[in-house]
Amino acid sequence: MDVYAGGVGPEAERLRTHLGGLLADRRLPHRDLEVGSGLATVWGDGTGEAVRVDAPDVEVLFDGYLHGHGAASLEDLLPDLGRRVVDRGKVLEGHESGVFNLVVLDKRTGDIHLANDPSGLLPLHHRRSPDGFAFSSHLHLAARALGTAPDPMGVACTLVLGYPLGPRTVFDGIERLNPGELVSYRAGTGTVDRSYPEVYYGDLVEPGPDLVEQIWSALVDAARPSVAAHRSIGVMLSEGFDSRLVAGVLAHLGADLRTFTHATRGTKGTRIVGEVSRALGSDHTFDYLEQGFPADLGELRAQLALADNLHVPYWDAGSRHFGATGVGATTTGYALDTTLGAHAFSSSSGSSRDRVLGRYGEILRQDLGRLGDAQMDDLAEALLVQARTPDRRWMVERIERFLDAEHAPGVVAQVDGIADEIAAEQERVRRSGSERPSQALQRYFLENRGRKFSFGQELTLRVNRPLVVPCYEPAFMRLMTSVPPRLRVHHRAYYQLLRRHLPELARIPSGAHALAPRYPRLVLETSRFAWKVHESRILRQFMATRGQTDVSRLRMVLFSEDAARRSPRLPMENLLERDSVVVNRLKMQATVDKVRDYQVRVFLPPTYLGLELTEIYDEL
Fold it and tell me: Is the separation of the CB atoms in 132 and 209 below 8 Å?
């Protein structure tokens, strides 16, 4: 992958100079690609996607992929694309689609424009200060190079929600480009303008007579250019629906599929993945993680620097695998459960019994045509309101659990403002084109949790191979977000799509069910709830028997309780031995002791969150 940084003024020069030193100091496999200019410098290892062109009136730096443009090459298109952004604030036209970031220097005015595709999946960060304007592809590297202090509100949101909201990051003054946003730095005034010229959403539209065919055609059309460009594609394959659906589409288009799974031997989920890979005819590799999860702080810090995320740190092995096998591109991170399955429209309040009965009632009303758009909007509004009222006591306890006495007070002081942060982000979503509560809810989820918390693992894959994400591209997203959620909730369209177009894959159970999706939805929902109860019983037995439990019926392809405890050292144990860390040593050590003694379960993100927090405060 490529790392790039640039801008204007002393701050941008400091960023570029120090970032190059950081890459060398941390033994990251990147060299100066000598495509630098007055606008930006690019470092890489030969597998990146950054392209720079220099025309008399504009300089353009492009990162990612774009297809459907009709030009002889991307390089031929970029000058016109840059002029389009400068003159009209327009990013995409016609059938153009892709996942990318774009930096344009207008040589006539000195203005710098940052833009992206409407998904905003690939991070692009920027900072305006009295010393100028700077931008960078990588957050942690940029923050270290600039000597930027932590942002207490960003840290508070990360601890409580798992991610900062909107443009905010965990570092003071460094912002992230929002999906479809255009940020323009005006050299003459030193000010920044913002707008949303390119979106992936519009009004809800009643679909044609066959919604399933529309979705299938849109998905195939989105994936076709990637297969044509790369042919050999690596897929992180799970026991769920999303990866098998996308892999099935790629196989349908004739791709040479290489699939990979982090797994635990003997689980039901691992057997399911084996069946799916055989049905796909893919060249499959299991990584059984029999030595446990990674705990080397140096390797983890390097991964954090390049992916800005340690949510699923063991994916680094998958990234190295695909890099070594030479696939043309990798794909994952589909969010299809949200777009196609509309799972954001699910309330967690009430008893389990009430939620189950409510689900059955909604499915029956949906099948009878009595589930209306107004009901979906009422539910969405209730969920948005619920999100704006987080539990203060729980938030304070969580912050104090992780941060030491020196750093916790400043972050706890932000707690009362988190509700305002949530409200402000919901308002941004509404103001930028989504007044309907149902659409605002889905965008709030996709543009925050979907692309920040979850998508970090995809950025880990991108370290070694180019990344394609057909399901997040504008054309497909525009269709899915325009379909009324009453037609998508509870996997209605999802099941129909699998049954009709991928019948072999529909005959294989999913990890969340004991049954295959070919059965009626009410049967599948019953199975899903019963399976959760069954797995909860297995987990209790696992803890009570100190790991001496048969896990062959667990749906989880990777049984993290077992894999984590196989590690000779947990990363938190290595971290606690350092002289200077920001975590609450007593509480973290107590948690580690309880994990080792099977008194509490292993929760992977918190296991690695202490390392990220310490890195944010630059104590390592």
Answer: no
Q: Which residues of 588-612 are buried (b: 16+ CB within 10 A; e: fewer)?
A: beebbeebeebeeebebeebbbbbb
Contacts of 290 (CB under 8 A, 6+ apart): 265, 566
The SS3 assignment for 459 reads helix
pTM of the entire structure? Answer: 0.95
The radius of gyration of the chain's CA atoms, rounded to the nearest angstrom, is 24
**Interior angle at CA 272, CA 236 and CA 312, nearest 5:** 35
Q: What is the mean pLDDT of the chain?
A: 92
* pLDDT for the residue numbered 620: 65
Residue 404's pLDDT band, with cuts at 50, 70 and 90, is very high
Which of 172, 77, 109 is CA-nearest to residue 410? 172
Q: 89 CB contacts (<8 Å, ≥6 apart)?
A: 182, 195, 197
- Answer positive or negative: Cα dihedral of 69, 71, 74, 75: negative
d(CA 278, CA 545) in angstroms, rounded, equals 35
**What is the predicted pLDDT for the residue at 29?**
67
SS (H, E, C) 181-220: CEEEEECCCCEEEEECCCCCCCCCCCCCCCHHHHHHHHHH
Q: Check: CB of residue 67 under 8 Å from CB of residue 97.
A: yes
